[in-house]
Design goal:
Blueprint lengths: L1 H17 L5 E5 L4 E5 L4 E5 L7 E5 L4 E9 L5 H9 L5 E10 L2 E10 L13 E9 L2 E9 L2 H16 L2 E2 L3
Antiparallel strand pairs: 1-2, 2-10, 3-4, 4-5, 5-9, 6-7, 7-8, 8-9
């Protein structure tokens, strides 16, 4: 527990001292939402590929935060939980409820368990998928970190970004 506090406190102290206002805003008019982020900490890449609608890369390490919006009908969060579980690497999956701008969803987190393959033996990565449904869309947020230290350092920042999501009238 002390290690987590040691890594989180410097980030929170930095945010407090620098007056981080999360003043940059990512807006997606097509899907009707916006989210604030700090461009001193994250680089925003509008992604034209199918993987994500937008990708945020953490400038101080190997961490990424991707957003994908897909049209889905007649699917509930339990079905989505099973769907997204298959996208996660092998590992211990932890699931909890989450509410974003009034919409209930789930937060799936997985701690990788290394494969027998040599290439995977040193894999200490962590991946989270946060998702919820609004109208006919599924909003999914993919948060991945190279290792537990980077995860612990950036998870409060991702929480802060998620807390700024605002849905606009279309």
């Amino acid at each position: 527990m002390k290690k987590i506090i040691v890594f989180i406190l410097p980030i929170l102290f930095f945010v407090f001292l620098t007056g981080c206002q999360w003043s940059n805003v990512y807006k997606n008019e097509e899907y009707g939402f916006s989210m604030k982020y700090d461009n001193q900490l994250f680089e925003c890449i509008n992604n034209n590929e199918k993987d994500y609608n937008v990708l945020f890369n953490y400038k101080n390490g190997n961490v990424s935060f991707g957003i994908k919006v897909e049209k889905r009908q007649d699917i509930d969060n339990d079905d989505l939980s099973k769907y997204f579980s298959y996208k996660l690497k092998n590992g211990q999956i932890i699931e909890q409820s989450v509410t974003i701008d009034g919409y209930k969803g789930r937060w799936l987190s997985v701690k990788s368990i290394p494969e027998i393959d040599e290439a995977e033996k040193n894999d200490d990565s962590i991946m989270d998928i946060i998702f919820f449904t609004k109208d006919e869309y599924v909003y999914s947020f993919y948060f991945s970190a190279e290792n537990k230290m980077m995860y612990d350092e950036t998870e409060p920042l991702i929480d802060s970004m998620l807390s700024t999501i605002n849905f606009m009238e279309k």
